[in-house]
Amino acid sequence: MLAIVELHTFNMQDAIGEGICRITEGTIKSLYSANTGSTKNLGNVSGNATSTTFNYDNIDHYEVDTGKTAISYRGYENLWGNMWDYLGDLLLQNQPSNRYLPYICDNFNYSNIISNDYHRINFNLPPLVGWISGFAYDENTDWIFLPIEFSNNANSLIPVGDYFVRSYINSGTQACIHGGSWFGELNDGLFYYAFNRKATETGEKHIGARLLFVPSTKNSIYTNNITKWKAKIGG
Prior knowledge:
The structure is a single chain. The chain is mainly β. The chain is built from three helices and 14 strands. Helices cover 10% and strands 29% of the residues. Strands 6, 7, 8, 9, 10, 11, 12, 13 and 14 form a nine-stranded mixed sheet that branches. A three-stranded antiparallel sheet has the order 1-4-5, with no helix packed on it. The protein has a two-stranded antiparallel ribbon with strand order 2-3. 31% of the residues are buried.
């Protein structure tokens, strides 16, 4: 939400940069993601790296072209592009009669199944794939921007500029990956979600996860901060 307010747009690729999204499949480069750290000179300023390093054949190669350099939003590198990120807090339950029910976990007890630590977000996600034309709203999770509709008038520029993918499997639980990868082109972006993987799947070179520090729930500093955070968001 901060990015939307600050940059006055949903299309973050247009506002900040495409990110690493145009590394051509079929070349040797497609075997590797970029090295991290190329936006370090930006500090907490949002922007695009002037050069990003790729290493293949044990040799560093430097890319400077649009679509081949990393972006950073307030110090958060590759928020879209380069590698898909697993989001452990989001799961999708596919049910008969075209019901695709999202669930969220907000206590760090992430799982590959919908346990008691996950609660239902009060809307259905749209079927299959498309360019996003509208977001859903749930007053209990009003800080979540998940798509509710597609439109033939939506594309990589307007009104959001990002894509959505849901699994063709109409039963079971799907995990969420976010942001897109090095060959996603203009599909990539802050609101690019794909619910098309099981949380137990491994081995795909373009999907990863960020390190996450989960503090002890017995730590008083942590529990006090969580209480303050929930109070601010109305939890």
